Amino acid sequence: MQQHTEAEVCIVGAGFAGLATAIGLVERGVREVVVLEAEHVGFGASGRNGGFVFGGYSLDCAELLAQLGPERARSVYALTRRAVTLIRERVARHAIDCELVEGGALLANWFDDDTLLLRQQRLMEDHFGVHWRFVGKPELDSWVRSERYSAGLVEPDAFHFHPLKYALGAAAAVEAMGGAIHERSPVTAIENASGGARITTPAGSVRARHVVIAGGGYLAGLVPALERAILPIATYVMTTEPLGDALAGLIPSRAAVYDTRFAFDYYRRLNDTRLLWGGRISVRDRRADHIARFLKQDMSKVFPLLRDARIDHAWGGMMSYARHKMPQIGRLPNGWWYGLGFGGHGVAPTTAAGEVLAAAIAHGEPIPEGFERYGLPRTFRPAGLAAAQATYAWAQLKDRWRGLRLS
Length: 407
Ligand SMILES: Cc1cc2nc3c(=O)[nH]c(=O)nc-3n(C[C@H](O)[C@H](O)[C@H](O)COP(=O)(O)OP(=O)(O)OC[C@H]3O[C@@H](n4cnc5c(N)ncnc54)[C@H](O)[C@@H]3O)c2cc1C
What we know:
Layout: E1 4-12, H1 16-27, E2 33-36, H2 45-48, E3 52-53, H3 61-93, E4 105-108, H4 114-128, E5 133-135, H5 137-140, E6 152-155, E7 159-160, H6 163-176, E8 180-182, E9 189-193, E10 196-201, E11 204-213, H7 224-227, E12 231-240, H8 245-250, E13 256-259, E14 265-269, E15 275-282, H9 288-302, E16 311-321, E17 328-331, E18 337-340, H10 347-363, H11 369-372, H12 383-405
Parallel strand pairs: 1-2, 1-11, 2-8, 4-13, 11-18
Antiparallel strand pairs: 3-7, 4-6, 5-6, 9-10, 10-11, 12-15, 12-16, 13-14, 14-15, 17-18
Helix pairs in contact: 1-6, 1-10, 3-4, 3-10
Bound molecules: flavin-adenine dinucleotide.
Flavin-adenine dinucleotide binds next to helix 1, helix 2, strand 12, strand 16 and helix 10.
């Protein structure tokens, strides 16, 4: 951005949260929506993710229910179900070419104990109004063939897509509807100004009635009240070389697959017969060759036949996590809006957040109580980062112990 402009709304960050807010605003008839992105559209977690699109949040549904009670938990969950549908509709409406595959999601059981899946199935049915289909071992082979799994649950209303292509398509839709997106425009300061805020970049500034901060795990040095409430946590993905017919032999279905461990693997078939594989978290970004090495070890445990497959690409991305693992959507006392903290389950929740923020800004609708309750508790970096790493290591140990007991 090389100028001084006026806008109704200025959004910081062109990841899914910022873009969904921008689309939500222009769809509601708000004029002069400007998105400022430090790097390029989809540079952060949104352009790097695994491409799973399904309902729910980083906080799991059992905890959501325990914390919010049946009514609020159901309505907060329903926002992500609507978001899944809305993403589909936007892909169709704006003709976004993002390799969308309507394959559903398969939760494969790592442990040899069906009660775990049956409990989850009942929870989803009774409290969230969705039916996840139980798939026993004999049928599981038509979904995924690995000795590691004992059974699975299929979530039919889930799909997967190429996340960067979706982000680029969403950005094009914003521009086609009259919004503006400025890449390579890092916001260096936000100050209150008469009638709104002044948002400054090295090359210019925007004066806007509203500002929305959607910088994800990449937000740094801009808004301390928000930054002290999130932990930037890294997670990783790789893709193999094209595997030809061998891939459909291992994964006959087009489902996106993840498993029942806390530290789970997730993967999906790509259209060109490569396998996209993701997993692990840590508090640091890592080199691509390290990522490829440890993710390949994980992949070989599930599919020993892929032990010698070549890994063509590996990358990491930063997520933003709140202590409570729920998104942080709301307004600071000084009037600035924010949508952060989507963690590792963010595609649908960022879209839900965009709708909530757009409705609040355009029509004065309240932020749903279910979100407000979570607030911005401090994460106490760097101690919070060390605690997150220790919690993850402990959860991995528990997964291993449970795997030994239940096999
Ligand atoms: C490797 C990986 C795999 C994942 N897999 C999945 C998955 O399969 N399914 C799923 O649901 N979720 C997944 N997630 C989580 C999901 O990607 C995130 O929750 C979601 O994309 C967060 O979106 P966001 O817009 O909040 O943040 P981001 O996408 O990180 O966007 C924030 C943007 O703000 C910009 N920014 C920051 N500061 C400034 C500033 N000062 N000025 C201007 N711009 C700024 C950044 O450059 C960035 O582009 C994954 C995440 C990662 C990292």
